[in-house]
Amino acid sequence: METKLPVLPEATNFSTVAFILGSPWGLALTWLLLINLITFFVFGFDKLKAKWKETHETTRRVPEKTLFFLSAIGGSLGALLGMKVFRHKTLHKTFRFGIPAILLLQVVVVGGLWVYFHSNW
């Protein structure tokens, strides 16, 4: 008489979760996705508060240094998209030139790290 073993789930079903939890690249991608979404919505929230402040003088806005901080820790793409979509902070030279400069610096650093760790020196 032949005994059949129980069918176990294949490992490929959890490959995405394993990639995110077990890989530094997965964690980095998750971080970038989250921080960019947060930054995008904070720009939208600040635009909403700016509109509200026109009629309610006591309304507090999101400080500009907070917007720059969110951009600097990885949310620069979300900041650029927030600026475009919500038409917010587009007349400020510090944002118009600063946010793309932060994004460019982040791309150069990541590219430099990639070249450093993948070169055959």
Domain count: 1
- What portion of residues belong to β-strands? under 5%
The mean pLDDT is 87
**What is the number of strand segments?**
0
Indicate the low-confidence ranges by residue numbers. Answer: none
Described by the principal axes of the CA atoms, the overall outline is: flat
User: What characterizes the major β-sheet?
Assistant: none
Helix content: over 70%
In angstroms, what is the radius of gyration? 22 Å
Q: How many helical stretches?
A: 4
Distance between the termini: 61 Å
Which class of secondary structure composition applies to the elements? mainly alpha
Strand/helix succession: HHHH
Distinctive features:
single chain; 121 residues; mainly alpha
